[in-house]
Amino acid sequence: MGVLEKLFKPSARGSSVKTECLAGLTSFMAMCYLIFVVPAMLGDAGMPRESAVAATIWVTIIASLIMGLWANFPVAVAPGLGITAFFAYYVCGPAGYSWQTGLGAVFISGVVFLLLTATRVRQMIIDAVPMDLKYAIVVGIGTFIAFIGLKSCGIVAADASTFVTLGNVGDPKTLLAIVGVSLIGALMARNVRGAMIIGILVITAAGMLLGLTPLPSGSIVSFSIPLPAETFMQMDLWGALQHGLISIIFTLTVVDLFDNMGVLIGLSQKAGFMREDGHIENLDKALISDSVATMSSAVLGATTATSYLECATGVAAGGRTGLTAVVVAGLFFLSLFLTPLVALVPSFATAPVLIIVGALMMQEVGRIRFNDFTVALPAFLTIVGMPLTSNIATGFGFGFIAWVTTKALAGRFRDINWIMVLVAAAFAVNFALRLH
Question: Is 103 within the bounds of a domain?
């Protein structure tokens, strides 16, 4: 205990080693659903499922250890849901790139993020984007994630005349997914810890009992440590550069940038160690930790790593130091021995989590100033552009271009800065190139 006190100094932040360990367990229970959800999306991208599971867990272990031991933040880091959806359902989907090329883009975005953080250009970019658009980006990604969940479990389906329509809700798998949404929603409303993982396990068990998913044929415990053998060092850096994935790298970088800033600032405020002037000790270390984690993620075979908002549960439980993140890393290491269980989890059991996460991200919509139409239109186009085009980058572009043009035509030039103009122009050129 003395070593942990000396290393993390929990008492200096009004905590204790015992409290930090309990906070780590709480955060793990809130976010361990990613073990099932992230590899499922990576599998849809064409990646080998077993390696995707191992890569996801190992990235979470390594990234959370860096965040805890170096930055001393009570925040765990893992492959993000929104960015994984972008990777799986756009980069490796409509955009037509292989997952190896996509991983190359992820690695490059990590390098870019590291450079932006080290040179403090990051602060200029963050300051340049209006808060209303930042909130709209979060809401848009949440809507996109929810739409993916609704599609994957059959609640919504393709339609020749209306594009989408209500799916076959009489299908047993779809019904179980609806039950899963209701169950997880009820548990979260009652503040039950681990609501998402409970929902996943209950619906998976129900699927097995109904014969909708196979029963385990062997041991669900692995006595060997899984490694991402099929995805390790498979990133195609030359392919990413050769294909000119500028907009994709830009999107990966920007989403990671804003997502991490929002989570870290929000959790720092909750933890009570943000100064009145807004300064947060070791914030740059936390952001550098994340960029290193993203590069490690690409090497192992997973997508952009990001700070997890679910760690708010651990902060609420008293977590104030990096020991909380280290405990989370330790628990994810133990979960490596349960990876055979992950292969048994069907998509209709993980879809409810995507829908619920979308609902949680929608909460930011209340912060957007919709009473100002020069704000409302860009925010609206950002939000609807992502799910309706199945492209997060397109939603970004709609919002940035609409912000600059609407503000300019309204004569409100003070609300426009040169960085926003450059970003909007880059998106306009990107859209124009698609016409040929």
Answer: yes
